[in-house]
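Notes, p. 3: input format for complexes.
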Amino acid sequence: MGSSSAAAPASSKSCPPRPIDLSGRLPIIQVVAGALIDADGRVLIAQRPEGKAMAGLWEFPGGKIEGGEIPEAALARELYEELGIDVCPSCMLPFSFSSHSYADFHLLMPLFLIRNWDGQPRPLVAQDLKWVRPQRLGDYPMPAADLPLVAMLQDHL
Ligand SMILES: Nc1nc2c([nH]c(=O)n2[C@H]2C[C@H](O)[C@@H](COP(=O)(O)OP(=O)(O)OP(=O)(O)O)O2)c(=O)[nH]1
Ligand SMILES: [Mg+2]
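Output follows (157 residues plus magnesium ion):
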């Protein structure tokens, strides 16, 4: 072949910083979350209640996967517990995931897009619920793990 060579692979120096703890000492917490999208293209966010970790921040509804659950089953359970809605697994579209090291645990959280559900979401455990245009999600403080997901939603929706 000729002397021209393919472009060198990008070095790690070009990767934006991401909070990842490679020490292997953090417990992995598996959470699943859903971005409900209404007919106007707005996304539902819920404010974490007082007394819970990250109280006051806005999040995608969802919660921890319990032993033996697949993510879709855990999400259906969480959305019923937190919002009082029924969502069937086939209406959960895998979108992206967060892999983020907090100080005391590593969060692994798939995010599903949901456009169809039964019932009217109610704040059964959150302080408040808001339907927000994707471009306005940045107006609401969210957990650090969610920020890349918000950027991806803003690009996609
Ligand atoms: N549901 C949800 N949790 C998130 C998001 N971003 C993020 O960092 N988290 C973190 C916060 C918590 O540490 C963890 C979820 O735990 P949780 O307290 O909501 O779990 P849960 O609903 O099962 O509630 P609990 O029964 O443990 O009280 O994931 C998000 O967008 N949605
Ligand atoms: Mg929850």
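DSSP finds two helices and seven strands in the chain.
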